[in-house]
Amino acid sequence: MRSAEPGFLRVIGLMSGTSLDGVDAALIETDGVTVGRRGASLSLGYDAALRQALYALFDRASELRGDEPELLSAERALTDIHAEAVRQVLTMEGEVDLIGFHGQTLFHAPQSGRTWQIGDALRLSGATGLPVIHDFRSDDVRAGGEGAPLAPWYHAACLAGQGRPVAILNIGGVANVTYVGRDGTILACDTGPGNALLDDWALRHTGVACDHDGALARAGQVDQARLTALLAAPFFHRLPPKSLDRQAFIAALDLLAPLSAEDGAATLVAFTVQAVATTILPEAPRAWFVCGGGRHNPVLMQALAETLAGRVAPVETLGWNGDMVEAECFAYLAMRSLRGLPLSAPGITGAPGLFTGGRLSAAAIRPAPGFWPLPSRDAALSRDPH
Length: 386
Ligand SMILES: Nc1ncnc2c1ncn2[C@@H]1O[C@H](COP(=O)(O)OP(=O)(O)OP(=O)(O)O)[C@@H](O)[C@H]1O
Ligand SMILES: CC(=O)N[C@H]1[C@@H]2OC[C@@H](O2)[C@@H](O)[C@@H]1O[C@H](C)C(=O)O
Hints:
The chain is an alpha/beta fold. It has helices at about 50-60, 70-95, 120-130, 140, 150-160, 195-205, 215-220, 225-230, 250-255, 260-275, 300-305, 325-340, 345-350, 375-380, and strands at about 10-15, 20-30, 35-45, 100-110, 115-120, 130-135, 165-170, 175-180, 185-195, 285-290, 310-315, 360. Strands 1, 2, 3, 4, 5, 6 and 12 form a seven-stranded mixed β-sheet that branches. It has a five-stranded mixed β-sheet with strand order 9-8-7-10-11, with helices on both faces.
């Protein structure tokens, strides 16, 4: 079925985040400016073998050339899970026009001019018969930006009528915030760790890569001296925009190693929360709406509510699906890329202007009627509120 809205395409966004838990897929209808109907969505978990293969690649990502057999084999497996996710959405939704494929970030070092998301877009296009936009971050980094976060474009497009200043806080493997000021100015950055360190800590101590419902952290005490040491890192004194690699604070696990499983988990939760609280924003947000897997952790949510000045609530309060915001975001960004609309902005990624980004891969595509020709870039830009 075609999108009912003229100029809108039906786009599947695919996100596999830094938590390494799997891939999220979500369909939205959009023209890259306005968000229309949200359609089917689902998550497919990585199996243990793929998760381990990816984790092993993280550890040596900065030295990889890109043609190592174990890298290529993980990339194929990763791509095929994404193709399966698309197939399942197609079964529920019928005709779709475009895919936005984030890929798995292996390495993110914008200060060295590199950000690297693996995933074979041409293979995905061939497997699904759909055009695929991918590699969303490289152009921004080449232009001098952080390459992340990119979700603020989507957060801002979805916010409507909330009292400002307002913040959307995503707590994934890494945490990031979108701040919208009184005058609508958008400022964004990664705030610090999200769940990734806590997942690694839980895996080490319990064999399960998640402190489910905060059970460990709830039973522990924060080690204030170690927390202070962690928060002394220069990152927390930098102004936004700024971004992080998943492994940026991995040494925290060694610092906390002498602690019990419970105290270490409590300290890591406090680390995530204090990192958010110390993020330098123009004004304290009146409300923080939280998305990403961290909002399922009640101990983390309670600590955020006790620490932040404004109201703290899950994005479900706004009628959003907090598990699918990032997948929807990459559908939205794919449409923006297709139309040549900006993905970069000074307040979001620190790029020195407004730039588009992303690449189109199309193998054996069956474009839906009306897909070509695209709306003109100039017409799109003149209607873009950002
Ligand atoms: N019930 C729960 N209790 C505690 N933590 C949970 C629960 N459910 C999910 N999580 C956390 O959420 C994480 C997944 O979050 P999410 O899917 O937002 O991450 P991601 O998309 O990989 O990250 P990123 O935003 O960095 O790309 C899990 O790894 C886990 O730590
Ligand atoms: C390099 C990279 O993959 N960064 C991710 C990661 O996960 C959360 C945070 O760090 C954010 O900066 C970004 O993802 C979201 C979707 C973004 O670009 O907005």
